[in-house]
Structure prediction request, 181 residues.
Amino acid sequence: MIKEALKNRNIAILVMVVLIILGLILGTRVGINKEKNRIEEKYLSGNNVTDESVKKDVLSMAEEFREVAAKYIDTNNTAYTDYVESVEAFEKAIGLSKNYKALKEIGADAKTLKNKIDELTGETNETLTSKLGKLTSKISTLSGSVDDYNSAAETLNKKIAQFPCNLLSILGFVKKADVIG
Prediction:
């Protein structure tokens, strides 16, 4: 009788330990997934490169810059064609990473084009400088938003790499947040 009582007691303790561990794991999973969703929603609800109105705004600024640039440089010039191609790539880009990469290329190619025009004309074009300033300011704002998201995603990914989240990750219950760029 004592052996049976001890056996039942040990089984009860084992069941309790298993339930506590399962509760801890499930609670961790729910908490991590909520944190991941909060980070993604915060970024996607803000000023980001996949938002259609933001994208149209950038494309409009890019077109204004191209129109002014076309007055001062041969449209077959490599700096000009590279810029036009980067704008087209941004227009066609789908997804956060591709949009972000294309956006960065627009900024770099716009600066290269402006510098080429300044070099060819021998002076700084104020209109082009103004258009470039507006475009790069918008790109900088969007890049800052991506940087904030990446920082939060990397912090979350560090949590996921630690126990007990790493076990959940191995089992496929928790996935790391995507880092953009």
User: Anything to note?
Assistant: The chain has six helices and no strands. The helical segments are 2-44, 52-70, 78-92, 96-121, 126-160, 165-171. Residues 32 and 174 are 7 Å apart (CA to CA). Residues 2-44 form the longest helix (43 residues).
